[in-house]
Amino acid sequence: MRIALTVLLLAWPIAAAEEKISIRTSRQGDLREVAVDMLLPVPLQRAWEVMTDFDRMSEFLPNLEESRIVGRQGERLQVRQRGVARYGWLRFGYASVREVSLTPYTTIEIKGSDDHVRQFGSRAMLTEQDGRTKLSYQAYWEPNGWLAGLIGDAAVREQVSLQFSALEREMLRRESQATNKGEAR
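The line above is the sequence of SRPBCC family protein; the predicted structure tokens follow.
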């Protein structure tokens, strides 16, 4: 009984962490999809601030080496990004200019392509929930050729978890700084 209780107590923080972010993947031929749901412990405006900080994203997102807004027309942006996607021992450099459409504080839509991906797109939807932010994210991509078969669902979930955990850390860091400075939420 004591061993079972110890195992349960040790496993509880792991189970709690897994409930914090829900990641689902699917595949239809070469088309890959991922859906993420998570509750972020920051106000909506802080989450929005971080998720749309394209000029500084390479400072807090792993695998992203450069991110810069290269064009703007109202709530439509062109963002140049360059980095390295890592899946186990596989590494793929990428560079793209992404078309970003913003609906302030609720929706971020991104579309584009690059040398390794025929098409990709994503939609992040944010809603406020008791002073926190609920994030619902869907993305799709269609890798070029042989790349599609090499990347399994576990690798996709790992990379997505890594990226969203980094976003959350940056949100918490900025929220802490704002709180320490006495800024209003």
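Note on the example: The helical segments are 2-20, 44-51, 147-150, 153-181. Residues 21-181 form a domain with the Alpha-D-Glucose-1,6-Bisphosphate; Chain A, domain 4 fold (CATH 3.30.530.20).
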